[in-house]
Prior knowledge:
It is elongated and about 100 Å long. It is α+β, with helices and mostly antiparallel strands. It has a single domain, classed as 3-Layer(bab) Sandwich (minor pseudopilin epsh fold). The strands form two sheets. A five-stranded antiparallel beta sheet has the order 4-6-7-8-9, with helices on one face. A four-stranded antiparallel beta sheet has the order 3-2-1-5. 36% of the residues lie in helices and 29% in strands.
Amino acid sequence: MHLRSLVNAKNLLNKHSSSGFTLPEMLVVVLLIGILATVGIPNWLSFVNTQRLNTAQNEVYSAMRQAQRQAIKDKLTWKASFREQDGIVQWAVHPDTVNSSNANWNNLNSNVRLDSETNLNPSLSTVQQVQFDYKGNAKSLSELGRITLSSKSGGKAKRCVIISTILGAMRTAKEHTTTNDGKYCY
């Protein structure tokens, strides 16, 4: 009797056990993953682009501050220079006596570009630069302006570093929904 109940129990387990998922269950899971990916991927890409711009803005701000500090320390004129070379935005900090083409250039993230709102020393065509005198002041009124960064992949996100006074005061800003004198980053 004991052997017969064991065989019946084994048969009962085999009838109710499952060895995998059914096709409808798999289709529901694939559909849910597809919906989540469709909603989540654009938001994730936007987040990543914004983080890249924030990092690039911090690097530009730091470069300008470094040039200002060096000018005060050395009692000489120093420059923070910016350019796009082969589609990559680059920055350099160097004394005024060093030609910007001979400076030690550093790259920003390759997905960041100089936006058309950039107007730092617009008389120069290829290199945007700001000069600081021995007191850390912007060397002239033409030094006042902004470096504006945006993403190569599009979107409305912009980040700026602005030289706002002749005393060399700097600030950072991000895009606004309304314009101020034709600029969205102020």
